[in-house]
Amino acid sequence: MARSGKFITFEGGEGCGKTTQIERVVTRLRADGRTVLILREPGGTSVGEQIRHVLQHSQQSIGMLPEAELLLFCASRAQLVREIIQPALAEGKIVIADRFFDSTTVYQGVGRKLNPPAVQFINEFAIGDCRPDLTLVIDLDPRVGLERARGRELFDRMENQSLDFYDRVRQGYLALAWQEPARIKILDGSQSLAAIEQQIWELLRHVL
Ligand code: T5A
Q: N or C: where does the chain have the smaller number of CB atoms within 10 Å of the terminal CB?
């Protein structure tokens, strides 16, 4: 599908500040007269929201195996790409996603230690040629991020991992950024909200 819009993804560990920064940047973009679509992963479609419940909030999913988890995240994304993202990009919209395929590379590949070539193959099958133009990783010590994210009442299976798991996730993002420096930019999530927002704005201006 021909694409005239821009696709921006936000990534990082739990509580790093993605959602907060997306809200701020979208407010600025809309004030600038841009048409912006915000999506979250897993979810964003009717099929995807059902998968999100199974992956994150269902108490019955406690015994889910990493292989099943990988396939469910990718199933949600395959639907999102074809139902929502590609049509929006074809219409020239700016699409901003709160997580995308880098989350699978890092959480399932590095965090869960699934076979990286298998993760890459399944990941790429799910997204086809729909790759982000820019990916912003907000890097934060997981001890700080988990503390920030604490207090949510909803049971979240993905937030019940060991610190070692979240440390691997953090290192996984840093390694990805090292491999793809043109697309993936790292921001220091321990700075103030305003400082991070300003850096994101500068990076976005280059892409838009
Ligand atoms: N997952 C996802 C996979 O394993 N594989 C995949 O392929 C995909 C797509 C998603 C889970 O699924 C996993 C990863 C996750 O474990 P989620 O509910 O969407 O779960 O959770 P997260 O994406 O981690 O979102 P969070 O809400 O936990 O974190 P955010 O969005 O990064 O953080 P945010 O903005 O909500 O901020 C958290 C708190 O910190 C404050 C905010 O005000 C808020 O209270 N804050 C700051 N405080 C001080 N200074 C700053 N700079 C701050 N920035 C934010």
A: N
Q: With a 6 A CB cut-off, is 50 part of the ligand 1 pocket? A: no
What spacing in Å lies between the alpha carbon of 6 and ligand 1's midpoint? 23
Task: Write out the two tokens for 174.
Answer: 């840093």
Atom of ligand 1 nearest to the CA of 100: 9
Residue nearest to atom 16 of ligand 1 (CA): 158
Task: Specify if 1 maps to a domain.
Answer: no
53-99 pLDDT tens trace: 999 988 889 899 999 999 999 999 999 999 999 999 999 999 999 99
More confident residue, 155 or 150: 150
By the 8 A CB rule, do 85 and 7 touch? yes
Structural domain harbouring 81: 6-207
pTM, whole model, 2 decimals?
0.96
Q: What is the pLDDT of residue 143?
A: 94
Query: d(Cα 126, Cα 120) in Å, to the nearest integer?
Result: 10
In a domain, 48, yes or no: yes
CA–centroid distance, residue 11 to ligand 1 (Å): 9
| One-letter amino acid for residue 134 of the chain | L
* DSSP percent split of the chain into helix, strand, coil, nearest 5: 60, 15, 30
Does ligand 1 come within 6 angstroms of the Cβ of 142? no
**Structural domains in the chain (count):** 1
